[in-house]
Amino acid sequence: MxxxxxxxxxxxxxxxxxANVFLREYYCGKEIIYPINPFQMLTDLKIxxxxxxx
Length: 54
Fold this sequence. Notes:
By secondary structure, this protein is mainly alpha-helical. It has 3 helices and no strands. The longest helix has 13 residues, at about 15-25. The radius of gyration is 13 Å and the shape is globular. The chain starts with a helix and ends in a 10-residue tail after the last helix. The model has no long low-confidence stretch (mean pLDDT about 90).
């Protein structure tokens, strides 16, 4: 992604606005599909995560 989200956040953009910018960038102009699957997003962006069970 070419957008500097850290810079936007430090510049005072609200969390809601930042989320909308991210979704527009993530979906690349395609229709945003709800509900959003954050785990699929992390996988698509090659961000490692784990789910800890109790």
